[in-house]
Amino acid sequence: MQIIRQKANHLTNAIGIAPEKVLLSYQVQDAIGKWCLASRVELRSDDDERFDTGWLDSRQEGAGWIPAIDPTGWLIPFALKRRMGYHFRVWVKTDHGECDCGEWADFETAKAEGERWVGRWITKPQEIVGHPLFMRRFSVDKPVRAARLYCMGLGLYEAYLNNRKIGDEVLSPGFHTYDAALQYQTWALTPVQGENQLTFLMGEGWYMGKYGLKLDAPRYGNAFGLIAEVRIQYQDGSEEAFGTDEAWQAAESPVLMDSIYDGEHMDARREGLSPTAQAVALSPAPTAPLIPRMSPCLCIQQRLSACPVEGHPRLFDFGQNLAGWVEFDCELPAGAVVRLTFGELLQDGKLYRDNLRRARCEYVYTSDGTRRTVRPHFTYYGFRYIEVEGLSDTPDASQFTACVIFSDMERTGWIKTDHPLLNRLFENQLWSQKSNFLDVPTDCPQRDERMGWTGDIQVFCDTACFNMDCTAFLQKFLFDLSNDQRRLGGCVPMVSPMAGYELRGVSGWGDAATIIPWYTYLHSGDKTVLAQGLPGMMAWVDYISREATAHSSGYLWRGSRQLGDWLALDADSVYGGTDRDFIATVYYYLSACLTAKAAVVLGEDAVADRHTALSEHIREAFIKEYFTKTGRLAVDTQTAYTMVLFLNLTPQNARECCAKRLRQKILAANGKLQTGFLGTVWLLSALCESGSADMAYDLLLNKDYPGWLYEVNCGATTIWERWNSIEPDGSMNRDGMNSLNHYAYGSVAGWMYRYMGGIQPVDGAPGFRRVRIAPIPDRRIGQCDTKLLSPHGLYTVKWAWQNAALLLDIAVPFGCEAHLRMPGLEESLLPGQHHFELNMPVVCRDPDEITCQEAVTHAPTRKMLSAQFPVALRWAERGMYSLGQLLESPFAELTDEDIEAFRAAVTKTIHEPSQE
Ligand code: BGC
To answer: What is the 465 CA–ligand 1 centroid distance (Å)?
Structure first.
């Protein structure tokens, strides 16, 4: 048995976390036993203070045991010391007599809340034009035990000790609500004996640079700022501290320009301690308090090499759309200029950049004549290709490396099938997550947006949490969101951090405030996420209630401006064809329900009761407004049926009718989806939950426009913003808003984990302590291997067809329980490996829904049609979509009896093996 993944606040080896509240988590691996009978935590600090919970017995529940030290999170029951290294390990005793502990895991606390800083805010003096760098020399004359740097930059910073970059993070201090709290970092320092020099390179970044939807609006500030505190502990027990003050110097930086959108210009000739150094100016402290960083590290996670683009000596292809930057080797005469431009695709053999809109996305480097590896510092790009100027006439691909940058999150989900295109789709959504989880969950990484659009992350968050452990990342985002929400009096913005642009939230976007805490909790098992989120959940629901009261009874949200089913294809408008008021009330209902559920978990009974009652009122009003007495839904779109089916928001008598209508709507659209951001995320689940799993797979596997595999077939390596970002003729969609790296439609991977792989979290046992396993196998993908490294351990569900039988292999991790549900089989599974061989019933297909294409290319069916229904066959070949549509057509020349016979014959032949 091994105890692994011991984390503090969901981070491995965290340095500089708030000492007031620390949550420890861990996982048991390779145990022979199934249950933990007792657990224990040992904690010790660098000053040798010790704490031991002693052995705590587990509690029995059903067939299993629940450990007292919850693997998904155990809150240290007291505040820790500030600026202190801690080490902990968890002990576990199992029902098999095993008893072991993890290796000591480390974390370190930051300064205490409100603790005074040794150091003051500094800024550049007037003499320095352009970007500054700040520096200070200090000497060390005794052996050092440990040294730390606490610092926060206004604008971005890179800190260097003796010309070596400190830490491997980039773009510090990241993107957050700088007007509400300044999230500072803690760095380990290793000064040498003798003279040392600390240097800070400064960039404008998200604090003061130009970005966002209103480029001319002010951002968080307009002056570079820095506060730093250095603490050196000597081996003789003494300690020394100094911070930023008048003694620091400023000089002109080699970085001449930086911009999140436009890129960077660096002149290496200005590097080194410049003789123009001046004393810095002190600046007043910003009003927002300094708080320890909450975010996971933002660093280079992968490196990709380039390939030349044939026939274009200066174009290079990294084979993958990504976010990050390019590093290159160069040795050029002083003053020579290299320019890189970035883009997502080639059109007519040229780098296409129109979709970047106002973002210039370039990197300019002026050489100082030395040989170096060059990279940007304060920007990033969304790209697959680069064009290079100035390096040489024929630069070599091996000179360039793409550095993939995203927040440090452990990978937790894997899916592999026998269907190569589907596998690529899965990779694509993962890449879109990587490309857009850069401290803030953004919409896209390339054009002049890259903002935390709340609707986008709302639809993608379940998927994201399957793919990676996003708990710390999303907690940080929720913190930003709550700061902005407070600013808007309870309304949730459309983008967060708002960065000076107050865009009030709309339905499906603002609901990020209820949906993200809920999914993060469900995936992580960490209740503190809900505790943190509940005030914002309530405030958002209250906000809608106020809006709804202004325009209706208070239970229907009507009359506000909404984005609707964004980018759906069933209307000539970005808002899609589904009534926007209808969607608003659907989400109002969902948010009220989630708030009630969160309150139940937290034991906030009054809040729970109030929101349950509210959700019932909304439901009632909704049904009255949108359903006829006989159960017909007044809003007749794929998205509308999807929403009511997914949320079970129908009167009893209408569910079946809605399920049927959804099928019909899809068939009427030639078997294609028409949904936008909000409809798509639930579409396949709604189909599976209403008996149409076959059609969910039809949509998933459809290779034509519009559909997921259409993009894959076009060579996509990430998820596109629009279903037709690239037109079938290969040309780029000319609509002004068109990103090739937008994760919203990647939400289909959440469905893959839940329905194709079949691993579903259960409300009452979050963090996957209990799950429902109910994969829906489809023959078209052969086999499917799903792995989920849940907070409790690794689940695997592997299914494979063997002739008529389905082989099913399931692994349930230590301490967990799974409820397996398959046709004709229902069983509780305990921790361990399980194998099943199932005889799956042949699904009898509805002949009306078989496509004409399939019928005419399936040899036995074609033969039968040609012998018995030659006229119908002719029309089937002429592009009618489904046999159902064909049968309705007068041209098929079929009597009612013929139609009956036709259906019976097709039902029989379509299941026969085809020789062709
Ligand atoms: C963004 C989206 C966003 C939408 C809402 C777009 O410009 O890229 O993904 O949700 O605007 O209006």
So the answer is: 21
